[in-house]
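Technical annex, item 7. During the second reporting period the consortium partners agreed on a shared format for inverse folding records so that results from different sites could be compared directly. Each record opens with the tokenized structure and is followed by the designed sequence. A conforming record, contributed by the partner at site C, is shown below for reference.
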């Protein structure tokens, strides 16, 4: 059975259960994991990330119930079956390879021209700001294009961190780079939490534990405004 046909068979009864009619269901190949839909009256077309293309039927069913419930106006609630699957080391290791291939702005290495992100991470660990368990099974990379507006990003699902190569410069204080790496690593430690705020109160409190937090923030603000 073709993948889209299998997806249609799984989703169709869920859609019908909400008084709707499924017109099409397909997997889509985007960099970020996502689900989208188009609704016309009671008819819907649903597209789900192909990161789930080989997932067991119960995983797809669980995730589809969330998607269809959202279409029907319910607040998203993600099931344990889906969450356990996408948080597994097997899923992360397998799908991260695809994610990295689709991430065209990543060098694919923590080693830059001047700085090494692995060394930055080790300094943070040595200070006791993070624990190894919180960042296990993760991948760090520099970006290819310097960006002063977005100095770092994290994919908690794929456990990938990208740091802007604008920080790969000896003129940037080491503690500033470490702060950005620390900030993004907090997202890793927080884990994949779909539907929840990425910058929770606990996240902000942990962020401020960085020894030179205010000084680093001032430097980054000046970098973004071009005054550095």
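Designed sequence (site C submission):
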């Amino acid at each position: 059975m073709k993948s889209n046909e299998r997806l249609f068979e799984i989703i169709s009864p869920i859609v019908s259960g909400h008084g709707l009619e499924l017109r099409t269901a397909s997997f889509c190949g985007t960099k970020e994991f996502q689900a989208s839909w188009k609704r016309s009256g009671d008819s819907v077309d649903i597209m789900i990330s192909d990161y789930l293309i080989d997932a067991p039927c119960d995983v797809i069913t669980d995730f589809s119930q969330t998607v269809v419930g959202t279409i029907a106006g319910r607040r998203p609630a993600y099931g344990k079956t889906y969450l356990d699957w996408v948080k597994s080391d097997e899923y992360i290791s397998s799908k991260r390879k695809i994610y990295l291939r689709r991430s065209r702005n990543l060098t694919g290495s923590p080693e830059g021209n001047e700085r090494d992100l692995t060394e930055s991470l080790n300094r943070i660990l040595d200070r006791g700001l993070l624990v190894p368990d919180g960042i296990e099974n993760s991948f760090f990379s520099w970006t290819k294009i310097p960006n002063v507006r977005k100095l770092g990003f994290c994919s908690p699902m794929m456990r990938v961190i990208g740091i802007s190569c604008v920080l790969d410069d000896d003129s940037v204080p080491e503690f500033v780079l470490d702060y950005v790496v620390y900030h993004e690593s907090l997202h890793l430690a927080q884990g994949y939490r779909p539907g929840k705020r990425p910058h929770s109160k606990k996240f902000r409190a942990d962020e401020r534990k960085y020894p030179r937090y205010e000084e680093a923030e001032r430097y980054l603000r000046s970098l973004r405004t071009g005054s550095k």
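Residues 3-86 form a domain with the Zincin-like fold (CATH 3.30.2010). The mean pLDDT is 96. All partners now use this format for quarterly exchanges.
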